Amino acid sequence: MSGGTYLAFDYGSKRIGTAVGDSLTQTARPLAAIAVHAQPDWAAVNKLIHEWRPVALIVGLPLDEDGSEQAITEPARRFARSLQQRSGLQVHLIDERYSSRAADYELRDARSSGRMNRRVRKGDRDGQAARIVLEQWLAEQG
C-alpha cells in the first residue's frame, strides 16, 4: 500500500457516503454525502478528489449476508469503473457487508452516550459507513 491519503465511497441509490483516511494512522473520518439523482453528482466527486488528492480510491461493494450480489451491486461496480476512468486513480473494491448496520449502531451509541448532541441527519449513516469501509481496507493493507 502506498503511503498517503485515501478516499472511500459507500454507494447508494440516493446518496454516496464519503470518507477520507490516512495510511499512516490507519484512521478515517466521514465527509459529506454526495447526492445521486439519475447519476452521481460528478462535480462533487471531482471536487473531493481535487481537494484531498488521494493516492487511490476505495469503493464499498454491497453484497448480501451470504456474499451474493444484490440489486445495488452492479450500479456500485459501474460507479467504481467510472471513478477510475474519470480520475485516473486506482480504485479498490471492498466487501461492505454490515458497514451500514455498524454505522447505525455507532450513531445510536454516540447519541445515547451524549457524544453526539444533534439528531442524526440524512447522510450521517452514509459517511459513517464509508469511514468503516475505509478503515477496514486500511487495516487489511497492514
UniProtKB/TrEMBL annotation:
<dbReference type="InterPro" id="IPR005227">
    <property type="entry name" value="YqgF"/>
</dbReference>
<protein>
    <recommendedName>
        <fullName>Putative pre-16S rRNA nuclease</fullName>
        <ecNumber>3.1.-.-</ecNumber>
    </recommendedName>
</protein>
<comment type="function">
    <text>Could be a nuclease involved in processing of the 5'-end of pre-16S rRNA.</text>
</comment>
<keyword id="KW-0690">Ribosome biogenesis</keyword>
<keyword id="KW-0963">Cytoplasm</keyword>
<dbReference type="GO" id="GO:0016788">
    <property type="term" value="F:hydrolase activity, acting on ester bonds"/>
</dbReference>
<feature type="domain" description="YqgF/RNase H-like">
    <location>
        <begin position="4"/>
        <end position="103"/>
    </location>
</feature>
<keyword id="KW-0540">Nuclease</keyword>
<dbReference type="InterPro" id="IPR037027">
    <property type="entry name" value="YqgF/RNaseH-like_dom_sf"/>
</dbReference>
<comment type="similarity">
    <text>Belongs to the YqgF HJR family.</text>
</comment>
<dbReference type="GO" id="GO:0000967">
    <property type="term" value="P:rRNA 5'-end processing"/>
</dbReference>
<dbReference type="InterPro" id="IPR012337">
    <property type="entry name" value="RNaseH-like_sf"/>
</dbReference>
<dbReference type="InterPro" id="IPR006641">
    <property type="entry name" value="YqgF/RNaseH-like_dom"/>
</dbReference>
<dbReference type="GO" id="GO:0004518">
    <property type="term" value="F:nuclease activity"/>
</dbReference>
<dbReference type="GO" id="GO:0005829">
    <property type="term" value="C:cytosol"/>
</dbReference>
<dbReference type="Pfam" id="PF03652">
    <property type="entry name" value="RuvX"/>
</dbReference>
<keyword id="KW-0378">Hydrolase</keyword>
